[in-house]
Amino acid sequence: MCEFCGSILVRTDLDLKKVGTVADFALEDASPIQINTEGVHDQKAFVVVGRIIYEWDQGGWNEWYLMFNDGSFGWLSDAQLEWAVTKQYAAQGIPNSPDQIHPGKTFTFGSTDFEVTVVTHAHYKGVEGQLPFEYWDKQRVTFIDLRTHTREFATLDFSDPQPQLYVGRFVEFEDLRLTNLRQFEGWT
Amino acid sequence: MPGQTLVKTRAITCPNCGGGVTLRGYSHTLTMTCSSCHSLLDTSSGEASILKKVQKQTKIEPLIPLGARGKFDNVPYEAIGFQQRYTTSDGEHFFWQEYVLFHPYKGFRYLSEYNGHWIYIRPTEVLPAGQYYQTFDGHMYRPFQKAVARTGYVVGEFPWRVVVGEAVAMVDYVSPPYILSSEKNANETTWSAGRYMTGEEIWKTFNLSGTAPPATGVYCNQPNPMEGKPRASFRLFGLFVLLALILMIVFGATHKSDPVYKGSFSFDPAAQTDQSVVSPTFDIGGSHTTAVHVESRAGVSQNWLYLQIALVNKDTNVAYDFGETLSYYSGVDDGESWQEGSSNQSTIVHRVPPGHYYIRIDPERDREAGESVQSANRVVGYQVAVFQGATNIGLIFIVILLLLPPPVIAWWRYRNFENQRWAESDMSGGGE
Amino acid sequence: MRRSPIFAAYGATLLMLFAAAEYTGYGFMGPSAARGGPKTIRDNPGASRSHYGGIAPRYVGGK
Questions:
Q1: In angstroms, rounded to a whole number, what is the distance separating the alpha carbons of residues A2 and C18?
Q2: Of residues A81, A71, A86, A80, the one with CA closest to residue A41
Q3: pTM given for the model
């Protein structure tokens, strides 16, 4: 039982053992974000409460689970230090299978047109902290990234039978006003 | 629960030579070369594995040493990787160099160097729009070049899986000093945006010793040193022409409209007496020389009259000699009426000093072939007037002509630079 | 003007020369000054008629 919001969040650090060794995990970690890192997005403060590490053929990336001060949740994506904040939205008009979707295909979410840029077949490498309960025990996941002519960004998550839609935008690192970051030797 | 951790640089042991290698890019580095034996290693997992043992290539020393740091947009970045790439055209290889720059919070940037020209590159997050031309970040980019780029020599660390010899389809679009590039491989098309930098700027940014290699030729997104100059020059030209016209009008307004002398005479060709006349003395006033124009008009109809005129300074005896022909003929030819000649003429005498003057007029008229004596002997009346002040239209044209070279030269130099730029392009129909 | 100071100076000089030319009635085509005939020209205009002006053949004194 989560003491912050009272929802049933069952993931804990124990799951690290399930997907990778703790020792390796610490060495692999190049992300400046950590659990309890705080920041601001769209004038709302957030705290980092959870994390999923994904790995695919060409590398890996982090999805940090954010809890905003208004009780909502979102995700901070860290892919080679390219930053994007997204929130989950109802997925309408999305085919159930990613097989029909190729780069170049367009979708409209809200009033913006998005174009598919890459289809990624990834798997979990590790989890940490508190996560929405759907995120436990997923091995193979397919993500489809979409971009726009502005800084908006969207991801289609095909890990579940029901595709999930996350929409947000790319942000500059300094715009997040992050505190409680990890420091890097030689870079302070 | 991780606290205020200080992440230490990762060190690995080279599986080929056993040498220790420090990773500047932490776990972002997926591929790297061993600094001792130059083997290409895969470092994407916890253990390093050999991709390619001891690359058999001539060692290339990067101009920016790996480990050097420089500030871009006020953020320090460290050069962690270097590669030489090439394209092949008509059997000839064209090489250029690229650097991987890294900051643990801000991420990755890249530098590209070719023939002494540098580009600072950042991967884009926004998709450019357009079919042929691309619109991005408020600029319009024009296609410059399409090429297949291959990876040649590598040294250092890379945040992607390096495959030596791997080919990607590259398209470059330019909006000097900016460049937009797309790279397409099997998985996706990635876009990156770049900005031109000079060798001097790079040397200053990384605080390198010595001087940067000089840039040769004109590079695709190199800013034109004459940018904006032709327009500014022509605007200045326009301003000067306008000022000259205003000066002309202002001076013209100062000319008195009343003549300083006016006289009427008549010429009798048949008379036995000398028909030349001399005017009374009149004043050409002022404190400086002026232009004077002498106008004559005659009541000629199907007739002509020649006036030999001299403007003479009574005191200095300086004389200005000139002639004015007055004529007027008209008729009807095949139903079309025509007219020829001018019954009034004007001559400008330049730089006439002020003083007392008179004019002397010698009228003449010869008998035409086939003309009757009666017709040739018609009495003709004529008037001559002297005005002080005359506008010299010719001078304005001279001024305009002399003002033209600077803007024309500026335009030519701008065009010349652009022609050199686009001569390197494989996608233009010519310079623009 | 800031971008082409040499042109600005050149043009300004040209305009000043132009103004001076207009002021002093300068020109490059037109009758030139010639030392005229004797002081008595006024009294005897026919005698001092220029031999080089006019249309030939013409009346040059006499019948």
A1: 89
A2: A86
A3: 0.82
Q: In this structure, are residues B245 and C19 in contact, taking their beta carbons and an 8 Å threshold?
A: no
The tokens for B209 are 């010793």
Report yes or no: B312 and B321 within 8 Å, Cβ to Cβ: no
Confidence category of residue B157, pLDDT binned at 50, 70, 90: very high
Average pLDDT over residues A98-105: 91
CB contact under 8 A, A30 and B25: yes
At B430, the pLDDT band (50, 70, 90 cuts) reads: very low
CA–CA separation, A173 and B4 (whole Å): 19
Chain A hits for B126, CB-CB cut-off 8 Å, are 147-151, 170
In what helix (H) or strand (E) does residue A118 lie, and over which residues does it extend?
Answer: strand A112-129
User: Identity (one letter) of the amino acid at B187?
Assistant: N
A abuts B (3+ Cβ pairs < 8 Å)? yes
CA closest to C57 among chain B residues: B366
| Nearest residue of chain B to residue A33 (CA atoms) | B105
Task: Encode pLDDT of B108-131 as tens digits.
Answer: 999 999 999 999 999 999 999 999
A22 and chain B in contact, CB less than 8 A: no
CB contact under 8 A, B247 and C34: no
With 70 as the cut, is the pLDDT of residue B132 above it? yes
